[in-house]
From TrEMBL:
<dbReference type="GO" id="GO:0016020">
    <property type="term" value="C:membrane"/>
</dbReference>
<dbReference type="Pfam" id="PF07963">
    <property type="entry name" value="N_methyl"/>
</dbReference>
<keyword id="KW-0488">Methylation</keyword>
<keyword id="KW-0812">Transmembrane</keyword>
<keyword id="KW-0472">Membrane</keyword>
<keyword id="KW-1133">Transmembrane helix</keyword>
<feature type="transmembrane region" description="Helical">
    <location>
        <begin position="20"/>
        <end position="38"/>
    </location>
</feature>
<dbReference type="GO" id="GO:0030420">
    <property type="term" value="P:establishment of competence for transformation"/>
</dbReference>
<dbReference type="InterPro" id="IPR045584">
    <property type="entry name" value="Pilin-like"/>
</dbReference>
<dbReference type="GO" id="GO:0009986">
    <property type="term" value="C:cell surface"/>
</dbReference>
<protein>
    <submittedName>
        <fullName>Uncharacterized protein</fullName>
    </submittedName>
</protein>
<dbReference type="InterPro" id="IPR012902">
    <property type="entry name" value="N_methyl_site"/>
</dbReference>
<keyword id="KW-0178">Competence</keyword>
Length: 125
């Protein structure tokens, strides 16, 4: 009794309709559980990246303050950030993943600084 590959294939019963229905039902339940958890991950990732940029800008502003005895004196926030780049405190201008712009606010006593994003606000203070 020699069976060929084709005859082996024909001998298999395959799946019943109920087995397929149960499988599809289980897969749909798994998808229903996973989708709400995956939906917000892009927003969380961009927020974490923006927070990292804000921390980097603030840290380099403090580094600049300690070295130069004052914060960058550019007229606009972009000028101040560009000043950090041209003087080697930042390699590139950090950009918000959602396209927000970073605002640098120097306190009235000129001894502290805050950084916030136009899209995300102040993160990681
Ligand atoms: Zn942002």
């Amino acid at each position: 009794m020699k069976k060929t590959l084709c005859s082996l294939w024909r001998d298999q019963r395959g799946f019943t309709l109920i087995e397929l229905a149960v499988t599809i039902f289980v897969i749909s339940i798994l998808i229903a559980i996973a989708l709400p958890n995956l939906r917000g991950t892009g927003d969380k990732a961009s927020k974490v990246a923006c927070e990292g940029n804000q921390r980097l800008i603030r840290a380099q502003l403090e580094n600049y303050f300690l070295t130069e005895h004052g914060y960058p004196t550019g007229l606009t926030d972009t000028d101040r950030l560009q000043q950090l780049v041209t003087q080697g405190y930042l390699q590139t201008l950090p950009t918000c993943p959602l396209g927000g712009t970073y605002h640098i606010t120097i306190a009235a006593d000129k001894n502290s600084v805050t950084v916030d994003c136009s899209k995300h606000g102040a993160l990681g203070l």
